[in-house]
């Protein structure tokens, strides 16, 4: 087949041409290999291994419960405060790991990217999968704590939990695609991510009740706060695990509207991140 005829062939594809996130599904086997690699190397050489997936959130919970719950007295205003606190910690931990993994996905695989071509989007997507797998032990631990406190499962709780997880992963992937692609040429991007994660716990109702923001912040600031995708996700986790234990507790008014706005922001972030990633991915090998 001549070069001209090849170009006119509908099945011909320019080598190295990326389809972005849509192209990931055509390389499911490679995605599985990268996912297995990420899971296997996470605790390679560690004595405790997967036990760390339980130790870290447990240590975080203990520290925040003692300092924020007991010493600062937040536990006195929130029924079943341990479940409330732990649900928020688990949600923020998923966001933190997913964003860190996706931001460093390209630079961590520099040796592979410089040698052969495979769709670059495979790396951040597999990083999201690794974060989700390591989130599962924490979710199981949260479920055990909630059951011990008398929690009963219902379809609304399952839906709320799934929506919360999907919102976190979508938002984290969008940010990760953006900062991860910029991080290849400018390592300052990783520092911006560290700043985002430093504020993540405090910018959502994890250590305190959302009513504190409603009662003390200006209305416009409260609305911005509630439209934060992480605030919506944390509230979804609270609705799934904490609210059934404390049914008389107040829920944010207009939560459905805030959830729709938060989801729109998360999807918009994913679209922007994907566009920036596709624009910059052609220079990854040269900049690494």
Overview of the molecule:
The chain is mainly α and 288 residues long. Helix 5 crosses helix 13. 37% of the residues are buried.
Topology of this structure?
Elements: H1 3-8, H2 21-24, H3 28-42, H4 52-71, H5 81-103, H6 105-108, H7 110-115, H8 122-148, H9 155-185, H10 188-200, H11 210-216, H12 219-227, H13 229-242, H14 255-280, H15 284-287
Subcellular location: Cell inner membrane; Cell membrane
Pfam families: ABC2_membrane
Transmembrane segments: 47-68, 80-100, 121-148, 154-180, 192-210, 255-277
Brief rundown of the structure:
The chain is mainly alpha-helical.
Content of β-strand: under 5%
Number of strands: 0
Query: What does the main sheet amount to?
Result: none
The general outline is globular
Helix amount, in percent?
over 70%
Helix and strand element order: HHHHHHHHHHHHHHH
Main location: membrane
Subcellular location: Cell inner membrane; Cell membrane
Keywords: Cell inner membrane, Cell membrane, Membrane, Transmembrane, Transmembrane helix, Transport
Pfam families: ABC2_membrane
Task: Provide the descriptors you would attach to this structure in a database record.
mainly alpha, single chain, 288 residues, membrane, transmembrane helix, 15 helices, transport
